[in-house]
Amino acid sequence: xxxxxxxxxxxDTVPKPPDHPKVRSGRIGVLLMxxxxxxxxxxxxxxAYLKEFLSDRRVIEEPRxxxxxxxxxxxxxxxxxxxxxxxxxxxNKERDEGPLKTITRSQTEQLAExxxxxxGDRIVFDWAMRYGFPDVKSRLKALLDQGCDRILLVPxxxxxxxxxxxxxxxxxxxxxxxxxxxxxxRVAHPYYEDPAYIGALAASMRTSLAKLDFDPEVILCSxxxxxxxxxxxxxxxxxxxxxxxxxxxTELGFSxxxxxLTFQSRFGPDEWLQPYTxxxxxALAQAGKKSxxxxxxxxxxxxxxxxxxxxxxxxxxxxxxGGEKFAYLPCLNDTQEGIDVIAAVVxxxxxxxx
Length: 354
Fold this sequence. Notes:
CATH class of the largest domain: Alpha Beta
Low-confidence stretches: 1-12
CATH topology of the largest domain: Rossmann fold
Radius of gyration: 22 Å
Shape: globular
CATH architecture of the largest domain: 3-Layer(aba) Sandwich
Structural class: alpha/beta
Order of helices and strands: EHHHHEHEHEHEHHEHEHEH
Strand content: 5-15%
Number of helices: 12
Helix content: 40-55%
Number of strands: 8
Mean pLDDT: 94
Largest sheet: 4 strands, parallel
């Protein structure tokens, strides 16, 4: 539902002293925030990205005395080369950037065009990455420079998690701490059960499945994993993923056997949320399943974890263990359904401001 635009407040017409500094205000900023991407696939860009990412206390909660030697002496020596090759396999060579950056930019541009009738040029749209560039601090400053004294932060994670949604907001709050004149700030609520989101996922999946030349026996619903310990400490992520899975399964009319829930991308020796995606893919193939598909509804845009890990590594696991037909169903990305979801979230959160 489109919110009707309302007139802006009358501008202050009282003459100002000649030495009064010029101040732009009265506009609203909308900042889309996603995880991030390296600036290149070589060793040093990858190392810089991984260091920023894996130094975040929200991501790795191990004590610093234990984690720093592992990170700096082992991981940052070996992992950049290996992950650089993975990124190179999905790299947008035309723009020389990761696909997450390409898609997030397009989402922002399309969102701005879609919501222009909402309040004209009064709303300014921008995007940022938690790790890498464009960074959150610089984009917040850009919005302020354009007269935005109200800013809506939109973490592009349907399900809330401390290592994703919270750390994106942390970065914005750190920037706010340095400002003399802070804007009024809102943070968009996670949209894991929003009817617009569930409906868009179902429509996108139906479209993707209709393009296949086979009917998958099983469709895995794969979410990014996290250490089980984070759940036990109170993170709501697992519960929100399960809610999305249940609502989407009901919308599609699938059974739990046809549409099981799994978790991917585990890292390190600790137990993570289960069942694991890669182990489930292997078990399905070894049990005689000849066709399968995977969808990743927890990602708002395709990235390394979907294009390389799911469509690459897990495809190879399935085919190597006896499977014959495999498909990865794309994220919502910057499709019409994807923009529908982001627009619905933004319009809901801007109520009372426009």
